[in-house]
Design a protein that fits this description.
The protein is of the alpha/beta class. The protein is built from twelve helices and twelve strands. Helix 8 (180-184) links the parallel strand 7 (170-174) and strand 8. Helix 1 runs parallel beside helix 12 and helix 5 crosses helix 7 (155-166). Residues 112-286 form the D-isomer specific 2-hydroxyacid dehydrogenase NAD-binding domain.
C-alpha cells in the first residue's frame, strides 16, 4: 500500500519515523509532507497515487479526493471530519477514520481557561499591570455556585461537566440523547431554549451538522442572561458569530470565549468578533497540547495499521 501523510502532526520527525517504521517494515510505502503547502494542485500531485491518506485539520477538497483513483482510506488525525467531502467518500467507498477522544482533556481544560479569564477579567488585569494600573475596576466573579450549561454531552461535554462540578457549579445540559453518565453527575437535561435562559455559562460541544449549523443563533443568544458567558470550543458554524458580536457590543451578554470560527485562522481583521468587547479569541488551539498531539499521532497511525490488518476501527459512517 502507498501511504501518504499530507501534513505535519505537531510531533517530532523522529516520532513520525518511529510510528511509520512498522508500516515500512511490512513493505508498505510511506511518504510524509510537512512543509505546510496545502494548495489543491500540490495536494493532488502528492496524493494521486495514494491508497491511504493521512490528514489532520487541513481541508481536503472534493477535487483532491476525486483525483485519487486508488484511495481506500483517509485516516484523519482529528475528531471532526467536516473538512472532508464525506458524500464523495461514501459514494466511492472510501473509508474515513478519526481520532475521537484524543483531546478530551485539552479541550475541556481550555474551556475553563476561557471561563476564568472572562470571570476574573485576566486580560484587563494584565493590561493594568503593564500600564501602571491597579485593581480599580477589576472586581471579578466566582465560578462556584454558577449554573453551567453544556450543549452536547459527548465525551468532551461530559469531561467539561466533571470539571464544572469540581468547581462547584450546578449542571444543566441539552443533547440529542440522554446519557446515564451525565445524569450520574447530577446534570439536568433541558430544552435548549430553557438552558440558554438559565445558564450563567453556556459551553458548546456539538459537531457541525445540518441540524447544528447556527444552532446558537440570534434568537438563542437573545435568551441569555446579561451576565452570561458563551464558550465555543466545538465548531465555528454552530454559532451565528455576527449575532454574537452584536450582543457583546450592545451589552446583552457579558462575554464570550471563542476558539473556532467559520474558517480556520487566520481570521480576517474585519471579522465581527475582532471588534466585540468582552470576547477572548484563540486561534483553534483547544486540542493543541503536547500530550494530546502525542496521543493523536499514535491513534492516526494505529487506525492505518488496523485497516491493513483487516480490522478497521474508529470509522465515520
Amino acid at each position: 500500500m502507498n501511504i501518504v501523510l499530507l501534513e505535519g502532526l505537531a510531533v517530532s520527525d523522529a516520532k513520525v519515523a518511529e510510528l511509520a517504521a512498522p508500516l515500512i517494515a511490512a513493505e508498505h510505502s510511506f511518504t510524509a509532507y510537512t512543509d505546510g503547502n496545502y494548495d489543491p494542485a500540490v495536494l493532488i500531485e502528492r496524493a494521486k497515487e495514494a491508497d491511504i491518506l493521512m490528514v489532520a485539520s487541513t481541508p481536503l477538497p472534493a477535487g483532491v479526493v476525486a483525483a485519487c483513483p486508488r484511495l481506500k482510506l483517509i485516516s484523519v488525525a482529528f475528531t471532526g471530519v467536516d473538512h472532508l467531502p464525506m458524500d464523495l467518500c461514501r459514494e466511492r467507498g472510501i473509508l474515513v477514520s478519526n481520532c475521537a477522544g484524543y483531546s478530551n482533556e485539552s479541550v475541556a481544560e481550555l474551556v475553563f481557561g476561557l471561563v476564568i479569564s472572562l470571570l476574573r477579567r485576566i486580560p484587563a488585569c494584565n493590561d493594568a499591570c503593564r500600564s501602571g494600573g491597579t485593581k480599580a475596576g477589576l472586581v471579578g466573579f466566582e465560578l462556584a455556585g454558577k449554573t453551567f450549561g453544556i450543549v452536547g454531552t459527548g465525551a468532551i461535554g461530559l469531561r467539561t461537566a466533571q470539571l464544572a462540578k469540581a468547581f462547584g457549579c450546578n449542571l444543566i445540559a441539552y443533547s440529542r440523547s440522554r446519557r446515564p453518565e451525565a445524569e450520574a453527575l447530577g446534570i439536568r437535561y433541558l430544552p435548549l431554549e430553557q438552558l440558554m435562559a438559565e445558564a450563567d455559562v453556556v459551553s458548546l460541544h456539538v459537531p457541525v451538522t445540518a441540524e447544528t449549523r447556527q444552532l446558537i443563533n440570534a434568537e438563542m443568544i437573545a435568551r441569555m442572561k446579561p451576565t452570561a458567558l458563551l464558550i465555543n470550543t466545538a465548531r465555528g458554524p454552530v454559532v451565528d458569530n455576527a449575532a454574537l458580536a452584536d450582543a457583546l457590543k450592545e451589552g446583552r451578554i457579558a462575554g464570550a470565549g471563542i476558539d473556532v470560527f467559520e474558517m480556520e485562522p487566520p481570521i480576517p481583521e474585519d471579522h465581527p468578533l475582532c471588534s466585540a468587547p468582552g470576547a477572548i479569541l484563540t486561534p483553534h488551539v483547544a486540542f493543541a497540547t503536547a500530550e494530546s498531539m502525542e496521543v493523536r499521532a499514535g491513534m492516526v497511525f494505529e487506525n492505518v495499521s488496523l485497516y491493513l490488518e483487516g480490522n478497521p476501527r474508529n470509522l465515520i459512517r
